[in-house]
Amino acid sequence: MGMIEDKIKEDLLQTVYADSIAIYEFIESRFALSEEDRKAVIEKINTMNDGLNLVLKKVKLS
Predict the structure, then answer these.
(1) Do the beta carbons of residue 24 and residue 41 sit within 8 Å?
(2) Distance between CA atoms of residues 33 and 36, nearest Å
(3) 1-44: per-residue pLDDT in tens?
(4) Fewest C-beta in 10 Å: which of 2, 22, 28, 53?
(5) For the segment 34-51, what is each residue's pLDDT rounded down to a tens digit?
(6) Which pLDDT belongs to residue 1?
(7) pTM of the prediction?
(8) How many C-beta neighbours within 10 Å does residue 51 have?
(9) Residue 4, Cα to own-chain centre: how many angstroms?
(10) 8-46 burial, b for 16+ CB within 10 Å, e for fewer?
(11) Burial class (CB in 10 A: 0-12, 13-18, 19+), 52
């Protein structure tokens, strides 16, 4: 059962990552970002993804 749960988690985390790309695209298309601001947004989204990955890999699915 562990392999199946790991695969499901992997798929869910890929969905979270894809959604974070959509968040970036939403922000980028609606705000006039400087290059510095664009890099800051990307950094924050990457930090969020890293943190979510660490937390979600440790917990079981419901």
Answers:
(1) yes
(2) 8
(3) 588 988 999 999 999 999 999 999 999 999 999 999 999 999 99
(4) 2
(5) 999 999 999 999 999 999
(6) 56
(7) 0.84
(8) 10
(9) 22
(10) eeeeeeeeeeeebeeebeebeeeeeeeeeeeeebeeebe
(11) middle
